[in-house]
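step: validate -> pass
step: tokenize input -> pass
step: predict -> running
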Amino acid sequence: MISFLSNILPKTLLINLYKNLPFPKKIKKWIVWRGNKHFLVAVLGVILNSENKILLLKHTYRKKPWGIPSGWINYEDPKKGLIREIYEETSFKVKIDKLIHTEYVKAPHRINLFYLGKYVSGEFTPNAEISEFGFFDSDSLPDGTSKDLKVLVKKLIKMTAAPHFTHEERCPR
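step: predict -> pass
step: emit ->
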């Protein structure tokens, strides 16, 4: 009901109601939450080992089974969510360095956050989700890796190797 009203009422009226209705802040936050669209947030890891090879996992439930570590975050810091997902799926400890890419995807509506990280340690045990793992050169990913992922991995690896510029160097006046 609230999301329906937020779609038909003018924004200025909604803002004035928010500012002037004598509701506690907690109720106002709930109204804002209910009045907005929701989407998923996925975290994906470009995890490199000491030889700069990328970690791929063989998923048991995909047609093209090889992919980078990923998962959904659950009201948590995205870096911590990625660390948790990788540990749950592999028992690997990783260090996440930085966000390197974001994208919006329509089906299902979500934001994908790609992070660069390093493999630290851990012993892999196959499980219901992941049957194998491997570290691969970005130019020789295994059969069963989607074409889209192969292109994306090369792009992300190239981005991480590119020199870093200051804002002024990227956006000259």
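step: describe -> Residues 44 and 61 are 17 Å apart (CA to CA).
step: cleanup -> pass
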